[in-house]
Amino acid sequence: MNTDSAAHRGAGREPHPFAGPRPTTDGPVRRTLLRTALTGAAALGTGLAAARPATAATPTRSAPPRPGTPDEAWRELAAGNRRWCTYRERHPHETPAVRRTLTTAQHPFAVVLGCIDSRVPPELVFDQGLGDLMTVRTAGEVLDEAVLGSVAYGVLELGIPLVVVLGHQSCGAVRAAVEAEESGGHLPAHIQYLADQISPAIDHGEEGDARIDATVDANVRLVRSKLVAEPDLAARITTGRLGIVGARYELTDQRVHRLA
Ligand SMILES: [Zn+2]
What we know:
Bound molecules: zinc ion
Structural class: alpha/beta
CATH class: Alpha Beta
CATH superfamily: Carbonic anhydrase
């Protein structure tokens, strides 16, 4: 633990920069009510601003604005990952003041669809805190209806401008899918579903560990392509309000890099 981090945690007065009023105009009443209900605000019909406690009304002048565009959101994640992989984490937005602010609203700036792997928790590898990321995690970033609905909720209802599909080095789900195909065996329980979803991404130009490694990348691209093809998401991409990027985390140096 470095001194910056210790000071940051101990301050206890950190305002959350992304918990104030949304930078854009509110959507239809239905969306406001849905957002209110799902974020736990008690005062239905009064709007999020009215429901906030007075102590959390306004971000301080020094607080940075919430990333509002896909590029801004990615830059924030990239900066956090640079801190993480150089052991200069800030562990932002964890203080008692932040927790109080977040009792009535949330305005995360990115959805991260990552793997369940215990070595790749999005909030840590991007050095983000409470209220910053909406995370969805399934083995091998596999999609199903619940995952698609979760991503759509973040984008359409919360107005999140960036979705990151985050694969990683040495993914066990990808390895299982590759080995199941090579052996012709059937995986137990619902694990076969995961393998079936990853299967179209299996790289047949490589062998052994290189095949698994190449399939990690191909699987990220496959998942991203499925998300991009979702009509409601595609409409936002077209107008520049949403970016969907593929990325990969390396266990060896803890860096995240985008996949073209
Ligand atoms: Zn994995």
